[in-house]
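Hypothesis: this fold can be encoded by more than one sequence.
Test: take the structure tokens below, design a sequence, compare later.
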């Protein structure tokens, strides 16, 4: 997980010596007869994708020696190609289409998609959909899904966990889900259960040592376990400026029921308020219990996560993939970690918790992709219910994203049953990432910069929210308030309802 640009290509795998170009009659008939998109059973989606590729080649719409160019981030590549390239080799054997994969930085994808040349398929974070789609940089996949007779379903069997948030912007299908990535809080279970820690905490705070229910309790915990003189830190949350919003949002969202909104109905920012100031204060407060370089540019999870896994911090906030990494044999905390719900706030006597989509690297097709059909078909083949299990368990950073992933014993063993059960409970409480608006990159850049200034002690939490609110108003006015109001109304439809409370 490297934040530096990389443009390495791995050697293309050898094409199979012979390929059965003759399409089985039943598959060809099924492909031709499809008129209505529908959910498909495990394995069927992959079979349809292979049949479609073969038919495209037979019709001359795709060249037999076509190359599918895939660009992904370091941690995603193994998930997209399989352990030891097993999925890639299987695709190439079944279709004859070679995959040429290259690496991109562990950053937002917009500029790389804008400037990319000859890239057929790549990844984008969920919060980027509005900007990517609004700028015409990625393809609306709905016509392609209709053509191939496949629906991105959210059924309880094999369906996607949050299909709308994972794949859609407005009335467009802009991504094929290949990841989830909601924020969870990870703690050192062994330290919470230690009798000496329990006695000392009870003496200091007059309550039992336990996982935090509120953000105030969380601050108590990270302060209690902080031992900087020993190189051990209470908090392992990233605090660099590019991802600041990810760790501020759950603090802010949980200050009202069912959640605090970023804007009112007229797109006036609501963050310059006691709720926004408190969330910013909480965000900045843990810096003094964090690793010493946590505010430096580039010190995202690739800095904080290894420290947590080596046993150098009590807590971290990241996606479920943290459990997969912490559970490896070479981890310093294997068997010592627990995941818990994100803390919240007491609102009218009731605890409100909210988590948020943060990363979520799903598959998108750039508008200038030379092989759009192949890109869509590989994305569908890879994310078939059967193949997606192999992708998630390939030890990359992709998290479970289909319902049956949560029930699969290999997934549960890799992540631990405790983490998977928590993930299932938290998904309905997850707010979509970012703002959900065109201009999202601009809104978040302003918020990130001011949060970073507050965390560095250069402005007060109140000043940070005042500055951000003014900048957000300027962005809204420039983009057009009426247009943004319409987008905001659509974005709010994806927010959790009041029933999804603890």
């Amino acid at each position: 997980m490297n934040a530096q640009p990389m443009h390495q290509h791995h050697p293309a795998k050898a094409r199979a010596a012979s390929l059965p170009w003759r399409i089985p009659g039943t598959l060809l008939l099924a492909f031709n007869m499809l008129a209505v998109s529908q959910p498909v059973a495990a394995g069927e989606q992959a079979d349809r994708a292979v049949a479609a590729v073969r038919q495209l080649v037979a019709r001359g719409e795709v060249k037999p020696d076509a190359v599918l160019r895939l660009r992904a981030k370091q941690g995603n590549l193994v998930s997209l190609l399989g352990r030891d390239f097993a999925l890639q080799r299987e695709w190439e054997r079944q279709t004859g289409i070679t995959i040429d994969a290259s690496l991109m930085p562990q950053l937002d994808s917009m500029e790389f998609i804008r400037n990319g040349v000859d890239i057929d398929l790549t990844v984008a974070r969920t919060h980027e959909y509005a900007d990517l789609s609004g700028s015409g940089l990625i393809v609306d996949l709905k016509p392609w899904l209709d053509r191939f007779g496949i629906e991105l379903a959210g059924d309880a069997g094999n369906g996607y966990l949050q299909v709308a948030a994972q794949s859609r912007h407005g009335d467009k299908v802009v991504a094929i889900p290949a990841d989830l990535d909601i924020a969870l809080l990870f703690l050192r279970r062994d330290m919470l259960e230690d009798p000496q820690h329990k006695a000392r905490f009870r003496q200091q705070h007059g309550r039992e040592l336990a996982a935090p229910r509120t953000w105030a309790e969380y601050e108590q915990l990270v302060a209690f376990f902080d031992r900087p003189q020993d190189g051990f830190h209470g908090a392992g949350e990233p605090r660099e400026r590019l991802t600041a919003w990810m760790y501020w949002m759950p603090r802010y969202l949980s200050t009202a029921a069912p959640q605090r909104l970023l804007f009112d109905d007229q797109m006036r920012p609501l963050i310059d308020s006691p709720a926004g100031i408190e969330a910013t204060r909480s965000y900045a407060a843990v810096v003094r219990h964090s690793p010493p370089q946590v505010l430096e540019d580039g010190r995202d999870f690739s800095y904080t996560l290894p420290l947590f896994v080596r046993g150098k911090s009590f807590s971290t906030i990241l996606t479920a993939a943290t459990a997969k990494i912490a559970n490896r044999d070479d981890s310093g905390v294997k068997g010592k970690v627990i995941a818990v719900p994100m803390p919240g706030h007491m609102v009218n006597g009731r605890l409100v918790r909210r988590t948020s989509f943060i990363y979520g690297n799903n598959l998108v097709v750039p508008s200038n992709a030379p092989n759009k059909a192949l890109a869509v078909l590989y994305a569908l083949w890879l994310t078939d219910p059967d193949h997606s299990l192999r992708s998630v368990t390939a030890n990359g950073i992709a998290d479970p994203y289909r319902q049956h992933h949560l029930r699969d014993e290999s997934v549960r063993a890799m992540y631990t049953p405790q983490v998977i059960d928590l993930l299932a409970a938290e998904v309905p409480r997850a707010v979509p990432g970012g703002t959900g608006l065109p201009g999202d990159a601009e809104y978040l850049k302003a918020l990130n910069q001011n949060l970073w200034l507050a965390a560095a002690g250069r402005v007060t939490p109140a000043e940070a929210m005042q500055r951000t609110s003014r900048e957000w108003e300027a962005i809204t006015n420039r983009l057009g308030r009426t247009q943004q109001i319409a987008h905001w109304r659509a974005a709010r439809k994806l927010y959790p309802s009041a029933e999804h409370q603890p």
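The radius of gyration is 23 Å. The domain at 25-175+359-427 is CATH 3.40.190.10 (D-Maltodextrin-Binding Protein; domain 2).
Hypothesis status: open.
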